[in-house]
Amino acid sequence: MSTATVETAKEHRPKDVMKKVVALCKRRGFVFQSSDIYGGLKSAYDYGPLGVELKRNLMAEWWSDMVHQREDVFGIDASIIMKPD
Predict the structure, then answer these.
(1) Could you tell me which residues come within 8 angstroms of residue 48 by beta carbon, excluding any fewer than 6 positions away?
(2) 47 — phi, psi (to 5°)?
(3) Phi then psi dihedrals of residue 38, to 5 deg
(4) d(Cα 85, Cα 64) in Å, to the nearest integer?
(5) Angle, CA of 69, 73 and 76, to the nearest 5°
(6) 28 and 45 Cβ atoms separated by less than 8 Å
(7) How many CA atoms lie within 13 A of 20 on its CB side?
(8) What is the pLDDT of residue 4?
(9) Of the candidates 56, 45, 52, 49, the residue with the CA atom closest to the CA atom of residue 22
(10) Helix, strand, or coil (residue 64)
(11) Buried residues in 37-59 as b, exposed as e (16+ CB within 10 A)
(12) Per-residue confidence (pLDDT) for residue 45, from 0 to 100
């Protein structure tokens, strides 16, 4: 395997790709790390104006494919109530 092939394979690891996608989304204002001014929370992000629209569009497409396009699936919206421990 050539050095270029190894380098390309390293660049396309899922963890590395996710880091690049998150960095791009942060630079473009799609997402912001939650509580960023306080050091941030790992894996928690707030959506900017573009991120909200992207999320809504993705959810609408998913809902259409998974619920509206199938005769054996029905959508529900239920409360999540957990017993305190």
Answers:
(1) 29, 30, 31, 32
(2) -95, 135
(3) -105, 15
(4) 37
(5) 110
(6) no
(7) 8
(8) 56
(9) 45
(10) helix
(11) eeeeeeeebebbeebeeeeeeee
(12) 82
CB 77 within 8 A of CB 67: no
Residue-by-residue pLDDT tens, the chain, 85 positions: 566 555 555 666 888 898 898 889 889 989 887 876 677 677 788 899 999 999 999 999 999 999 999 999 999 988 887 777 6
Residue with tokens 């790390």: 33
Angle 56-60-64 from CA coordinates, rounded to 5° = 175
**Cα 70 to Cα 47, 58, 62, 64, 74, distances in angstroms:** 30, 18, 12, 9, 8
DSSP 68: I
What are the φ and ψ backbone dihedral angles of 82, each rounded to 5 degrees?
-110, 145
What the block records as the tokens of 82 is 């957990």
**31, β-bridge pairs:** 47
